[in-house]
Input
Amino acid sequence: MDLVRPYSFDRPLFTATLILLTLGVLMVFSVSGVFASEKFHLPFYFLIQQGVGAAAGLALIIGLLPLRRPLYENTVLVNGFLLFVVALLVLCFAMPTVAGTNRWVILGGIRLQPAEFAKVALILQLAWFVEKKGEKIKDIRQLAVPLGIMSLVAILILRQPDFGTGVLIFVLGLAVLFLGGMRIKHFAGFALIAVPILTVYFLSAPYRIERLMGFLSPGQSSADVTFQVDQSKLALGAGGLLGVDFGRSTQKLYFLPCAHTDFIFAIIGEEFGLLGTVVILALFVVIVARGLSISLKAPTLRSQLIAAGLTLYLGIQAFLNMTVVLGLGPCKGVPLPLVSFGRSSLLASLLAVGILLHISQRKRNVRAKL
Output
């Protein structure tokens, strides 16, 4: 048993999140103002959209903090959430394609990207499964259901197509199962099976091969393949130590594609320099460190796994985004949590932080044990 002490949440985690969220909203406006003016005749269009997402996410956190019963551990809600997300992932294929992909669902005029919520939903469901099975999780036969669920979610996302998110989903799932007691030999075996399958799927799309070759041999690849990363590096180089100042980026003026989404970190580097990028990196280090600390101190195995899984989700995704922007990895199409434009990504990230903050309020009920 454990006690919940409302509003005794982890202050460093909350502060780092607020700073990143504020910087993200400001940078979305800085990066997208010109583009929004020309496309929507409203320079504040993306700022308003991101502001709405930030407000909704903060409201979600405020609603979670005073609850004494963890809704994220309610069996009906957890499994219902995952089923709902899977249904939305299937519904994506009935929606009009956007840029040749089926990643979005439009409900009541609101556009959602279900793959972002799938990360949180899968972590919650797998943590429930591990707690339910206990020591039986070491039996390979007990892993059929969770691996089947992970594979279904990953395949639906891969077919959108969204290779980076699909692989991230599978990695997060395996990590939660491993931390929950899966044997090392089973973990290694499933990883060895997944790697060749994902490799074959990766090589089935010529554009993914071009991205990989552009990363491995940038000098021998066409300019079109390496253009985005080249422009990203130019933005980072132009920023120098202290940057060119807020709002004065030139790369955002149609030189760097996806500047307000996947490559916003590059514009931060241009406008705030090396110092700005180090601050962003430091804030994510704080989030990961506090998340792991919350996991270690959580009162139950289930809450420990949820905290660890959500921390890995935020940390790994931030790392993947930054490596792409810096040219240290091939393009994957994953946003920078809490910073990149995108209401679905922002809501999912804030939901993860809200759950972490709630877990940080839970203490072991020593008196109940006595």
Notes: The two ends are 11 Å apart (CA to CA). The first strand starts at residue 2 and ends at 4. The chain has one domain: 2-369. Residues 133 and 142 are 8 Å apart (CA to CA).
